[in-house]
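This section describes the prediction task in plain terms. A model, or a person checking by hand, is given the sequence of a single protein chain and must write out its three-dimensional structure as a string of C-alpha cells. No templates, partner chains or ligands are provided. The sample shown here is typical of the held-out split.
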Amino acid sequence: MKKIKNLQVYNNCLIVIDMVNGFVREGVLHDKKIADVIPRQLEIVRSSLYNGDLLVFIKDSHTENSVEFQRFGNTQHCIRGSREAELVEEFREFEDYDNVVFIEKNSTSFMESSQFRSLIAEMTGLKRVDVIGCCTDICVANGTLGLSNYFDERNKRVDIYVHTDAVETYDSVFHGRGKYSEAAKLLMEQQGIKLIKKK
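The expected answer:
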C-alpha cells in the first residue's frame, strides 16, 4: 500500500469497491452490466478528487487457495497478479494521484484487510465516507456494515453514504440482482448508512 502523509487532515474519503476486471470484464464472476454504473462512478471520483478528498480503491486480490473460493462453489477469481485483479481501464488515470491509495483484500469485506484498518485508524479527522462499487449485496454491504460497526465501537461519529446509482451487482442462476441488492440496501439503511443518488 502506498504511504500517504498526514492522513489525519482528511475529513472526507471515497471508497471504490472492487471495480476490477474480474467482476466487470472477464472471469467466472464478471457481469458486463456492472459497467453501466462506471460513468456515474467517474463523476463521483472526479468530484471527490477536485474536493481534495482521500480516494481508496479496494481491489479483490486472492491467493490461489483462498478459502473463500470453497464457500462460494469453487469460483476462483481475481487471483493476485492476474488481469482479473487489476482495476478496470476507466479508473487507471487516477493511479498516480497523491491522494489515491490502493488496498487489496482476500475476503468479501474490506474491513478485514489489515491495510485498511491501519489506514482508517490514522484518519482521526474523518467525518464522512462515500461508497461506490460492486457488488452491492456482498462486498459493498459487508464492508460498509463492518465500517459502521467499527466507528460505533469507538464512539466516533462518521457519516457513511452509499451512492445507489453507483453500485451494482452480478446476476446468475443462484444470485439475483434485484432481491439481493434491495435486501442489502435495507440492511445498510437500518444501520444508519445513508443511501443517496443523483437527482
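For orientation: DSSP finds six helices and six strands in the chain.
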